[in-house]
Structure to design on (140 residues):
């Protein structure tokens, strides 16, 4: 079964994430996605459960625009590929990874309208994401 997990950019500062001992990558947190009153949170694994409550390792409110799901695939370097990542194929073409209701995750060229399905056999390399990339500033 494919691992279902998400990532998002924490609304807490990096200093706060560090002081609370929350594992992150430059402010990006990884785990399960829950929402409370329309606000998205990335939460860690369950530490304790009871019929009346659950306790997670951590919970962090994230920017809703930055939430992306793990595709279940890794790039040629072993980096997990998430929705809204930018990837490059072996021919040097750059794509955005996007969710598509007909075929789960698809690759959309940043300089065109075509698209193709993402498969484990395609050799890809994660080079960034749509929120922290100078590539998009040049093409959009």
């Amino acid at each position: 079964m494919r691992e279902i997990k998400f990532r998002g950019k924490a609304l807490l500062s990096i200093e706060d994430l560090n002081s609370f001992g929350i594992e992150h990558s430059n402010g990006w947190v990884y785990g399960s996605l829950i929402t409370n009153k329309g606000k998205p949170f990335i939460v860690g694994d369950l530490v304790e459960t009871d019929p009346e409550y659950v306790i997670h390792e951590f919970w962090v409110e994230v920017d809703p625009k930055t939430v992306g799901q793990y595709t279940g695939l890794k790039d040629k370097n072993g980096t997990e590929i998430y929705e809204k990542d930018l990837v490059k194929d072996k021919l040097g073409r750059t794509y955005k990874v996007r969710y598509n209701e007909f075929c789960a995750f698809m690759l959309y060229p940043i300089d065109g309208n075509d698209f193709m399905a993402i498969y484990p056999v395609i050799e890809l390399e994660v080079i960034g994401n749509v929120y922290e990339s100078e590539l998009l500033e040049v093409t959009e």
